[in-house]
Automatic annotation (TrEMBL):
<dbReference type="GO" id="GO:1903600">
    <property type="term" value="C:glutaminase complex"/>
</dbReference>
<dbReference type="GO" id="GO:0036381">
    <property type="term" value="F:pyridoxal 5'-phosphate synthase (glutamine hydrolysing) activity"/>
</dbReference>
<feature type="binding site">
    <location>
        <begin position="47"/>
        <end position="49"/>
    </location>
    <ligand>
        <name>L-glutamine</name>
    </ligand>
</feature>
<dbReference type="GO" id="GO:0005829">
    <property type="term" value="C:cytosol"/>
</dbReference>
<keyword id="KW-0456">Lyase</keyword>
<feature type="binding site">
    <location>
        <position position="108"/>
    </location>
    <ligand>
        <name>L-glutamine</name>
    </ligand>
</feature>
<comment type="pathway">
    <text>Cofactor biosynthesis; pyridoxal 5'-phosphate biosynthesis.</text>
</comment>
<dbReference type="GO" id="GO:0042823">
    <property type="term" value="P:pyridoxal phosphate biosynthetic process"/>
</dbReference>
<dbReference type="InterPro" id="IPR029062">
    <property type="entry name" value="Class_I_gatase-like"/>
</dbReference>
<feature type="active site" description="Charge relay system">
    <location>
        <position position="178"/>
    </location>
</feature>
<feature type="active site" description="Nucleophile">
    <location>
        <position position="79"/>
    </location>
</feature>
<protein>
    <recommendedName>
        <fullName>Pyridoxal 5'-phosphate synthase subunit PdxT</fullName>
        <ecNumber>4.3.3.6</ecNumber>
        <ecNumber>3.5.1.2</ecNumber>
    </recommendedName>
</protein>
<comment type="similarity">
    <text>Belongs to the glutaminase PdxT/SNO family.</text>
</comment>
<dbReference type="GO" id="GO:0008614">
    <property type="term" value="P:pyridoxine metabolic process"/>
</dbReference>
<comment type="function">
    <text>Catalyzes the hydrolysis of glutamine to glutamate and ammonia as part of the biosynthesis of pyridoxal 5'-phosphate. The resulting ammonia molecule is channeled to the active site of PdxS.</text>
</comment>
<feature type="active site" description="Charge relay system">
    <location>
        <position position="180"/>
    </location>
</feature>
<feature type="binding site">
    <location>
        <begin position="137"/>
        <end position="138"/>
    </location>
    <ligand>
        <name>L-glutamine</name>
    </ligand>
</feature>
Length: 199
């Protein structure tokens, strides 16, 4: 089974570990560079991107993670994790810094100005069986994507209709929402598959 780490500095780490284990991965928390070396893929959980950014510096994980990303390690970021994977962040704190990740611009707390948290069905390209029940909590949305970024999902109803909330660039996957907070494991299974193929 592929070994998949969850960046365990802040955020909903346990939920991701449980979701990954449920779809056949060997899931483990990652806090140190040596732990990162031992994983085939990494999940960056939801939480608070400004805090995760600071902790990444403190735990000296920035360079090791950037290097693994450059070498093709699959990474999945949900919510704050999506922000950490974005090349550009709008409405971020000036000192927050993400990884060398997806060629996209995200707006932090984007839905928050309309509704803080909400749930909506989101159809994901490449995932069969109907839309995912997506949970958004002070979530970012994607405002611009580069030519190599594949849009996997958009909101289809309500005030945020048309907003991009799931993307993929090669081995990097990001969603605005939190599949780890539902019982639907299809998104985690999709990521585990991606890791299997990348190994
Ligand atoms: N608003 C948070 C941030 O800016 C993300 C919220 C979440 O991960 N649920 O990082």
């Amino acid at each position: 089974a592929p070994v998949i780490g969850v960046l365990a500095l802040q955020g909903d780490v346990r939920e991701h570990l449980a979701a990954l284990a449920a779809v056949g991965a060997q899931a483990r928390p990652v806090r140190r560079p040596a732990e990162l070396d031992a994983v085939d893929g990494l999940v960056i959980p939801g939480g608070e991107s400004t805090t995760i950014s600071k902790m990444v510096e403190l735990f000296e994980l920035r360079e090791p993670i950037d290097k693994r990303i450059a070498a093709g390690m699959p990474v999945y970021g949900s919510c704050a994790g999506m922000i950490m994977l974005a090349a550009e962040v709008l409405d971020g704190r000036p000192d927050q810094r993400g990884f060398d990740g997806i060629a996209m611009t995200v707006r932090r707390n984007a839905f928050g100005r309309q509704v803080d948290s909400f749930e909506a069905p989101v159809e994901i390209n490449g995932i069969d069986g109907g839309p995912l029940h997506a949970v958004f909590i002070r979530a970012p949305w994607v405002e611009r994507v580069g030519p190599d970024v594949e849009v996997l999902g958009t909101v289809t109803e309500g005030p945020a209709a048309g907003r991009i909330v799931a993307v993929r660039q090669n081995n990097l996957l990001a969603t605005s929402f939190h599949p780890e907070l539902t019982h639907d494991r299809r998104l985690h299974a999709y990521f585990v598959n991606l890791v299997r193929h990348a190994r």
